[in-house]
Amino acid sequence: MVIASIVMELGIVWLERAAWIAAWIAAILPMLIASIPSSKLTSFHQLVLGFAGRGKILHLSSQKWTVPQKYFAHFYVVGAAWTTLLLATTWMYACKTAPSSSEEFHLSDIACHLTGGSHVFSFHKSHLTPVEHRFKVWRAVFLLVLMEIQVLRRLIESFYVFKYSPSARLHILGYLVGLFFYTVAPLSLCVNVAPEVARFAASLMAEFIAKGKGHTSAPEFDILSALSPLMKLGWCQLIGGVIFLWGWLHQRRCHAILGSLRENPSQAKEYIIPHGDWFEIVSSPHYLAEIVLYLGLLIASGGTEITIWLLHGFVVGNLTLAAGETHRWYLRKFENYPANRNAIFPYVY
């Protein structure tokens, strides 16, 4: 019975993992096909661009099925709420499995994770040593902390930095894809611990329902125990975190530049060539910065999770398509547009 239970649980974990992988592949595949340079795929390419259109790069043929571009804020409301819930629950669970103050992650165990180790394809904590399991849980906490920093800043920017034109629209399919992304992306960052975290949350909820608020034991919280394990992660997490913050800071600067172009209401429908920061080398530096910060998340994850690879692949594909259209729009709009700027990748594209 015990063996059958373990096999069934492993099967459920694999099915959940397969579902997330299939969802990301389904989102990436149309962009991948549209990027193939073939005249036979021109119609499909235009169809994908029409669905992905927003603001100035929205095709006229797609205007019927649109919502206001200011609905971008909905992505970050959903993303912030969902990431906060996942982070809080995963952090509480991590504190239950955290090392004592005298116990640290052993260098040999960390090295095993950094190099892939013998447990790269193990998806159940019974296959891991206690130290390896704790490392995996705290790594998920670290990734969710970075994601929380990103979505909270984007939420603030959507209300206080960006001033969308009243006529700016967003294709309804692009709107739904955005909601999909900010729901699935945070979960992909902790998918390897999600089943056990879900069981932990369910047990807390069951205890609350059974005993009531007055008889439920409050989770013990020690700020040192809650933070110190994050300081003992590996080099991948340190390097990934630095790359994430590098991209995060440049995206903040580029968004501030874009927001400053429409500080006055009279500029609501006026387009100006942006200058400063990475705008001097590419047309969509805010997209490049987003690719960089998600690369940081990928590196911080250790590169052993296929769902995070697919997450980054989706970000690269989606933003590269949008940046290409934006670059072509700038070239059509401004005769004096800087010739040295590429679309999104300096000196490449």
Automatic annotation (TrEMBL):
Keywords: Membrane, Transmembrane, Transmembrane helix. It comes from the Eukaryota. It is found in: Endomembrane system. Pathway: Protein modification; protein glycosylation. One of its GO terms (cellular component) is endomembrane system. One of its GO terms (molecular function) is oxidoreductase activity, acting on the CH-CH group of donors. Residues 235-349 form the 3-oxo-5-alpha-steroid 4-dehydrogenase C-terminal domain. PANTHER family: DFG10 PROTEIN (PTHR14624), POLYPRENOL REDUCTASE (PTHR14624:SF0). Signal peptide: none annotated. It is a multi-pass membrane protein. The keyword GTP-binding does not apply. The keyword Membrane applies. PROSITE patterns: S5A_REDUCTASE. One of its GO terms (biological process) is dolichol-linked oligosaccharide biosynthetic process. This is (rape) hypothetical protein. It comes from Brassica napus. The chain crosses the membrane at residues 18-36, 71-94, 168-189, 230-249, 291-311. It holds the Pfam family Steroid_dh. InterPro entries: 3-oxo-5_a-steroid_4-DH_C (IPR001104), Dfg10/SRD5A3 (IPR039698). Its main location: membrane.
